[in-house]
Amino acid sequence: MADVTYSAVCAHAGVPASSAHHFYPDLDAIFRAILETHRHALDAALMRPLKARDTRSWQTIVECLVDRAARYHRANPVSAKLAVGGETPPQIKRIDRDADRERAGFALNLVEELFVMPRFPDKERVAYVATELVDTVFTAAMLATGRLTSPYVRLAKVAAIGFLTHYIGAKIPRRAAGQPARFTRSTRKTAGKKNE
User: Fold this and answer.
1) 31-195 has which CATH code?
2) What is the pTM of this model?
3) Of 47, 160, 170, 185, which has the most beta carbons under 10 Å away?
């Protein structure tokens, strides 16, 4: 990341820097555009319907989402370097952290649709911290090995599940058919958009 320059990016793209400035005034703007493009693609990968084996427990849901994130980053090394590479400038990394907040809400809603979650304060914040734990382990993998190795992906699962178990418990009951989920703030927002 430290070696990337605006002129080098323009040269690689075959676009004169004077023309590129019209669309991307600086290197940060290019990085933001890359992250934004991959944000939507990663979200689509995470939000694919789950298979039955992935919904045996809340832990298997978390494991599935971590695996999907790891597969996406492995298939898209440029976005992985920006999102979890460990060398991204803070103002750019903040974009990914904000996206993680929405992903945490999605994961929480997914679990609550299938299982009866215990009540505890700051549920959305807890889910967000669990997401950031996965992000931190992914970053450690990138800094140590340059890629997301299987041992680090397993460690990311252990970190997130171990943290969440403190709040959720190791075993929670499956929601009965037709039993409504208690909507979180982010779910209500999504439901409102669907009804508009």
Assistant:
1) 1.10.357
2) 0.85
3) 160
